[in-house]
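Q: What structure does this chain adopt?
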Amino acid sequence: MISRHKDLVRFAVMLSLLIAPWQVSAQVTYQVAALTGMPAPGTEENITFGGAAGSDRVFTFAAINQRGELIIQASLSGPQKNMGQGLWIGMPDGLRLLVRSGQTIPSQEPRDLVNLMMPYVSDSGVIVFCSRVSGRNRPVPAILLLSGEQLYPIAISGESAPGIPDLTYGDRLSCSAMNSLGQVALFDAKSKAEGIWVGTAGNLQPLARSGDPAPGVGQEVFFERLNPPRLNAGGQVVFSARLRGKGVTENTNSGIWTGQPGDLKLLVSEGDTTPGKDGVFGDLSRIGSREMADLAINGAGQIVFFANKGIWMGTPGSLHPVVHDGDSMNKEQKGPKVSLARTPELRLQDDGRLMFWSEQAIWQWQADGLRLIACGGDPAPGTDSLAFDGFSEVVQTPAGKLAFTATLKNKKGRGLWVGVPDEMQCVVREDQEFILASGDSRRIVPGSLALTSDGCDTAGQTGLPLNDNGDVVFRVAFEAVRGVRDRSEGVFVAKAQK
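A:
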């Protein structure tokens, strides 16, 4: 009876947090979207947001669309050790369950959804996610599409791959990109037959496979190894690859290609002369490899990539340098210099605006020149004379709204800033107490603050944690207090005031 009473009190507290008005902190307002221990909407009475013992993260993905609706992926806790995962959508005070592990999915043979991985979300509400589904002997990779409340398989390991007779998808199948129309680019990294497919559910076409002739590099030259593709709003793809064949040497065995199924063109090849600079392009075979944001394509078909300590932009037959390591902001060579000693992350908008950053600085380039957005040592807005030290996650919407996380000099932990260049506001800092509700302040676990989506570099800008209204969704973990509460985690929406 006592246990039941505690459960009811706990539920009442969680409910009050969920429906409470925005919690105000200086120039920023917050709203709770989800917390560890909060009842998970659409599940049984005793199921909450949580995770198996020892799990690092409860909330693995969160994004926000232009209407202010959230898409959240989270682990579940309940009577059993592992209650699986789910995906929710809706306003912060009205989330509804879309899909949950354990569901049966339609396929060539009955299969259950075992787990969910990073989803891609389109503006039209279509969601595509990588997952694992039950197989004959073990779970296998699958790419699934969720439209409305209907779940459809796009591709499943072991089932037929379209466009190539007698070929089945391998066990290293993944979705590399999705655009705003719901088109996807799939990558199968099976050891001896890598391949890329492009299209929509039920209408996928092969783009390239290892062993195919490589366009634009001579007779009897073939793709040997492919990297995951990028995809724009028009269905155009860009990817890098390693080559083998007649006349290929260790100095000419890689390149970057772009196009659509049946119309693939060479953008640049290793050994080509670098436009506007003395020298030739070096190894291009790792550009766009997994977890690298050094390759992008926008809706106009412009491509940007990092090579030879420089950033290059263009289309097949028209390539030009953007910026190189050591360049200054202006022709007079005054002001801070660009450091590209390490690979930068690139984000390319449809109008040609390019944002790139490394740990030391955030830059924006467009046709009228280069602009420094923020740099280590700059004053950090909203702090008491503190300075930025380094930068990590950076997100920009097509309309120019900006969010980034950064560390501060001589301070532990990170902070989150939101706004537009020259008008950034501090949303939250790990070294300050977080006011969760009246009378409930908590300490943030250092290193836990994160924009819970990586802001996919597809042209459709799917799955951003920031919208054009300046609403940003972020995740933090709270320290445990002995005898009071365990370590917890939450997803919050913040709005910076003008």
